[in-house]
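Handout, tutorial session.
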Amino acid sequence: MGRFTTIAALTILLALAVAMNCQLFQAPVADGVLDVTSIKLDGRAFRNEPMDPQFLSLLGARSTEFRSYGSRPDEMIWTFLAWFDRPREGSQVHSPKNCYPGSGWAILSESAPEAPWGNGRIHRLIVGDGNARRLVDYWFQRTDGVITSVFELKRRMVMDALHHRSGSMIFVRVSTPLGGPVSDCVQRIESADRELHSKTARLLGDTLKGTNR
């Protein structure tokens, strides 16, 4: 009886997993295409940075942008944006905690300071490669707010799929060299954070209004 019960339980769990998988990848597609390349930091010249095609294929985002702003190496700002319209099989939600170590950067510290726009928190890393250090802020922008946890993001994506809601969101990452007074670096990155938060939230709201509710 015990063995039969175990087999039955495993069968039910497997059936639920299959159902969840089918439900997850039948989530509705957002209306229109959200183009994150339209988002720019005001009054700053930028350069579009190259991205590895293999990385983009693994990422599975519908729209991406990777730019560098500034001419002085010690005051550069790098921005990376990726729009996901729904959870899709093969798509990998981007996490700098995995990306940076895979690119030769060590995570020296991490924290979750209050968001520069004054509502919620963001995720902050200090990374180093032996020669340089960078301050890195990132978050996941959705129509229902900001998320910093990948686990929480995936939980909400599953709930979106179960309730046939679009899981549309924009991943935002901002980084800058960590040199000189730390307060100057924090001020520089948080200024960019505030602007990107405002513009990504507005873009999601204008383009995808009502699809994520």
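The second record follows below. Compare its token runs with those of the first.
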Amino acid sequence: MIKLTETESEYLLQIPADQRDRAKGIKGRWWDTQRKLWVYPRTRDSYEALVAEFGDDPSIENISRSSAEKPGPPSSESENERLRAQLKHIQSTLDAMLSQQSGQVADDGMSDHLAAKDTEIERLGVELQGAQSSIEHLTSENAGLKEKLERLYKERERKPERQNLGELAKIAAMAASGDDPEFIKVVEGEPLLQMFPVQITKKLEAALRRRLGRLGAAGFQMSLFDLLSEARDANSLPEEAIDLAHTIRKQRNIIAHFDVDSTTTPARTLLVLFAASVLWPYLTQWPEGGDTN
């Protein structure tokens, strides 16, 4: 009696000994000595060959066509461990089969038995090569992922330092101003970005207009240079304050109107910040007309 069944990964064939040539004629077969049956991989080719050979036999069970889709490539360390365990199992099976083959087998079907063993050894050898190749691929992939992960960790550790640098600079600048309340209002809500010199210049112009009493339409038409010139003529600010204001004005013009090297922008921004920290107390505490008595 012929019996053909299937598992998740195999087709299993039981057939009388006098018809074993029919089983051998289908590629990919091997003889399972423990289950005493022929085993075929559950693929589309095996399915079509088995149906062609045994499909008309009324004693076989229905089997389904395999999708024959290849599994996706392993991509994790757990799959790596699974392949190593499979490799160990294959090697153990090979050793046991070779040991058994080297002994004497007192059996009338010894030649068939050895042929089945040879077929099984050949199949396991191919599977062993595939497992070794997969392990090498996974080892290389894991090494690359670990290197990338270490690089990401280092970048993440550096980011907080970069983000906090602007806040630390503002704290230092506010301390340099003597914690001048007006200066703190100027910088506290202003992020240290490329446009900081432009924004601080606008606030400097507004402070000078208030100090010089130029709050009308004519005052708003005066440039920062004109306001500083009037402050010098009126002795409304000391020379150091005027020089600091001109530093801010020049850096603002460079950033706003010229194609500067972007790598210098952070340094220019800090230059403007600290120049303003020294200047602002003059705007709020220096007496009108420069009289310090």
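Points raised in discussion: The chain has three domains: 1-69, 71-161, 177-290.
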